[in-house]
Design a protein that fits this description.
heterodimer, A: 37% helix, B: 5-stranded mixed sheet, 34% helix, lipoyltransferase activity (chain A), LipoylTrfase_LipoateP_Ligase (chain A), BPL_LPL_catalytic (chain A), Lipoyltransferase 1 (chain A)
């Protein structure tokens, strides 16, 4: 039965998208996403990469997102962005499938994804499309692509960064383009969540950035898009018109809903973090006796889950077995503030009096490290 | 009788060995003895039949170990960093399964397997630098077709023309490994009729066997299925590798529950271990239970009146704020229920604040966030605070101050549909209340004795 349904859905897809994906052989494809949801757009990227035959033609996808932080495939979110600040500002975190560093997306940032077969993978060529378009639109503009696949304005300011992904037969290269992004929001959010993180995850390389609009005030969004599409067609010999698409359309993109759900999930976003450790000092005080002391915390996190937790507290402050019980209560659970707080609360229930007070203080200090 | 059997078995064994030796010898020598041939031929055919049957049944028969080299990634890249392994030594892989994720210069590359087989050796650790053109993994391939294509081959099976055209337009390819295709051909099955449950809708051996079972009504012995089905994920540790693309597009068919009949043991640790201690301490407390039914008709109408007013002020009003306030008012009359005793019950401390907790069942386990100082709050204030705690809980942001310091707890068993409950006191508290669900029930109001 499901086999019949599958054939039917294939037929439906062809009916709806026959004009878009069907088309004649060597024509390119330029898609403009109607969605500003970062997860939907990332899922659309993956869908195109997996389902569209890129052997004979390329695809260009243009998209932008409501404010969001996007980290690279192998990065550590705790090291790259301030998760608490993002939660307060309702800025979601997304992990993309391509490598590279962390970026802040908002509606003033244009994303372009160049899909091609693995054989036709050429990132410098793609970037020449962008610089070519900008120069054609504003002939005096000093923009050029670097070896690191950034695009610099006036030789100093980064206006575009790249990342890419190679699969078995296909590839995609996407890059940002800062048109009119909110740079202050960017700075507030792109800083570490926890102190003392040691990891081998891909670090981000910060650079001074600028908006195109600041240096070419008359270059509006629509003109920018037009210039890019024109240049893309010219460079690759295509004759494609811009086709708007809705990534949430399950009929057009069967299976995209599940991809969106996966991208939103904790497992993909946090559990894919490479192994890291948090090593930091804790300052403990006793509110009643006004005494204080210092302790050390060493947490190992693998797959977003606490693998080991060691608390080094002076023996005179708290009995070592109690400290060990508190540390052990965190092991095996997600590296997450609430989970740690619940574990601390569970351990606290079995203690009383002065011990409980100091244990609570230690638990507080421990939990405040975890974001 | 036994002696005869043993004797004949020994003879048979010798005979087998002779034939086997002769067969080996025949393979090695240039030409064989004519007289031996018919026997050898018969024997060979048996072996052939056995091996082809084995090919249908067993998962892997020993084959050559192939060194799978890291292929050229393009752009003149000579080395990459291995970022994540999707397989480990001993895992079974099929052609096109993801093996690992490597990164080079902001490009993330998924390396997929070119062969079916078992991973024998991983050449690099995570974060190590892998060289292009050098071996990445060793795969022990299945004894099957001798020719294994060097380049990835796009296979286009013979299908009905209409289906073929649709596949072309969408740019999809029906994928099945050569072993699976052979199986299909031998059993006269059209690949287009089989539902693929592998990655990208790929058709696996199990799909062919399932199809066969449905066609012929054959009952495939459970041992067969056990060998074929993928082993269950190792408990509490990194599970069976799941490639990113596979997770993004799970198979269209409904997943069959995998039953292998094996017990799974894993150590209790972390939060669960801490809860064991808490619960053990809790049940040391001698419990006294008291149950009653309360007519809530007036509360129901009161809440419906106040709900819109609360919503106008941005607060969701449930029944809990009323119960929490009622509990606090009760505790004013009976402060002993808001107390705590120390170890050994030497001293009792009457707590001044009514910090009333609300027991919640979460993915992690039992969480009890509490509303502080209920004695100072109005029903509306309590509702506001509950909203705040709920929002924190959803965001995973409840902290130690919210989750500890409670003096009395209410458990809303009615929220999961329960009517009565026997709650367990959470130390260091001395009392707990459980609320069943609110039901509309017919009741006798007044009985006039005539």
């Amino acid at each position: 039965m499901s086999h019949v349904r599958r054939s039917l859905s294939l037929l439906r897809v062809d009916g709806v998208l026959g004009g878009v994906f069907g088309g004649c052989d060597a024509s390119g494809l330029v898609l403009l996403s109607r969605s500003t949801d970062v997860f939907e757009n990332l899922a659309l990227e993956d869908w195109i990469d997996a389902n569209v035959d890129l052997q004979r033609r390329g695809v260009l996808l243009l998209w932008r997102n409501r404010p969001a932080v996007v980290i690279g495939r192998h990065q550590n979110p705790w090291a790259e962005c301030n998760l608490a600040a993002m939660r307060r500002a309702a800025v979601p975190l997304a992990r993309r499938r391509s490598g590279g560093g962390t970026v802040y997306h908002d509606l003033g940032n244009l994303n372009m994804t160049f899909f091609a077969s693995k054989k036709a993978y050429d990132r410098q060529r793609n970037l020449s499309v962008v610089t070519g378009a900008l120069r054609r639109a504003r002939p005096g503009l000093d923009v050029h692509a670097t070896e690191r696949l950034d695009i610099l304005l006036n030789g100093r300011f980064k206006i575009s960064g790249s990342a890419s992904r190679l699969s078995r037969k296909s590839s995609y290269h996407h890059c940002t383009l800062l048109h009119s992004a909110d740079r202050s929001a960017l700075a507030a959010v792109l800083r570490p969540s926890c102190p003392g993180i040691h990891s081998n995850a891909t670090p981000s390389v910060p650079s001074p950035v600028a908006n195109l609009l600041d240096h070419a005030p008359s270059l509006q969004w629509d003109e920018l898009l037009d210039a890019l599409v024109q240049q893309y067609n010219a460079e690759f010999g295509y004759d494609a018109a811009v086709a708007p698409v809705d990534p949430a359309d399950e009929l057009a993109f069967p299976g995209v809903g599940r991809a969106v759900a996966e991208l939103r999930g904790w497992d993909w976003t946090f559990s894919k973090t490479p192994k890291f450790s948090v090593q930091t000092a804790l300052h403990l005080t006793d509110a009643v006796s006004a005494a204080s002391c210092s302790a050390r915390l060493h947490v190992e996190v693998k797959g977003g889950v606490v693998e080991s937790c060691v608390l080094d507290v002076p023996a005179h402050w708290l009995p070592p077995r109690l400290v060990a019980a508190l540390a052990a209560a965190l092991v095996g659970d997600r590296f997450c503030r609430q989970r740690a707080a619940a574990a601390v609360a569970a351990v606290l229930r079995t203690e009383n009096g002065e011990l409980q007070r100091r244990l609570l203080d230690l638990g507080d200090a421990l939990v405040s490290v975890i974001s | 009788m036994a002696a005869v059997t043993r004797g004949s078995f020994a003879v048979l064994r010798r005979l087998l060995t002779q034939q086997y030796r002769r067969r080996c010898f025949r393979l090695q020598s240039v030409r064989c003895d004519r007289t031996v041939q018919p026997l050898a031929f018969r024997w060979d055919r048996n072996i052939q039949m056995l091996s082809s049957r084995t090919l249908h049944i067993a998962s892997v028969s020993r084959g050559p170990i192939v060194q799978f080299k890291l292929s050229d990634i393009g752009e003149g890249i000579m080395e990459v960093t291995v970022k994540e392994w999707y397989v480990k030594e001993g895992d079974k892989v099929s052609q096109f399964d993801s093996i690992c994720e490597v990164q080079s210069d902001k490009a993330s590359v998924t390396i997929t397997s070119r062969y079916d087989g078992v991973i024998k050796r991983l050449y690099y650790d995570v974060d190590a630098t892998a060289l292009v053109g050098k071996p990445l993994v060793d795969i022990e391939t299945e004894a099957g077709p001798a020719v294994i294509p060097e380049e990835d081959v796009v296979e286009t099976p013979a299908m009905a023309r209409e289906e073929h055209t649709h596949q072309e337009i969408k740019g999809l390819k029906t994928q099945a490994t050569p072993a699976v295709r052979r199986l299909a051909i031998e059993n006269n099955i059209k690949l287009s009729e089989v539902v693929g449950t592998g990655r990208d809708g790929r058709i696996l051996k199990e799909d062919i066997l399932n199809f066969l079972a449905k066609q012929t009504g054959a009952i495939i012995p459970p041992t067969l299925f056990q060998e074929i089905q993928t082993p269950p994920p190792a408990p509490a540790t990194a599970a069976r590798p799941a490639s990113t693309a596979a997770a993004a597009k799970p198979p269209p068919a409904t997943p069959r529950p995998v039953f292998t009949g094996k017990d799974v043991t894993e150590p209790l640790k972390g939060f669960h271990k801490a809860m064991v201690r808490t619960m053990t301490a809790a049940l040391k407390i001698p419990h006294f239970g008291y149950c009653d039914e309360v007519d809530l008709s007036r509360l129901v109408s009161l809440r419906s009146e106040l709900r819109s007013i609360a919503e106008a002020r941005g607060v969701k009003l449930s029944y809990m704020p009323f119960f929490i306030k009622a509990a606090s008012l009760g505790l004013l009359h009976f402060p002993v229920l808001n107390a705590s005793v120390d170890e050994g019950c030497q001293n009792i401390t009457y707590k001044a604040s009514h910090n009333i907790g609300l027991a919640m069942d979460t993915l992690q386990g039992l969480l009890v966030p509490n509303v502080k100082n209920v004695q100072l709050l109005s029903v509306f204030d309590i509702a506001q605070e509950l909203n705040r705690l709920q929002a924190l809980g959803v965001a995973g942001q409840l902290g130690t101050s919210e989750l500890s310091g409670g003096t009395f707890t209410l458990s809303n068993i009615g929220s999961i549909g329960g009517t009565y409950a026997k709650p367990v006191i959470l130390p260091p508290e001395v009392a707990i209340g459980a609320l069943g669900k609110i039901q509309v029930l017919p009741q006798y109001e007044h009985i006039h004795v005539l």
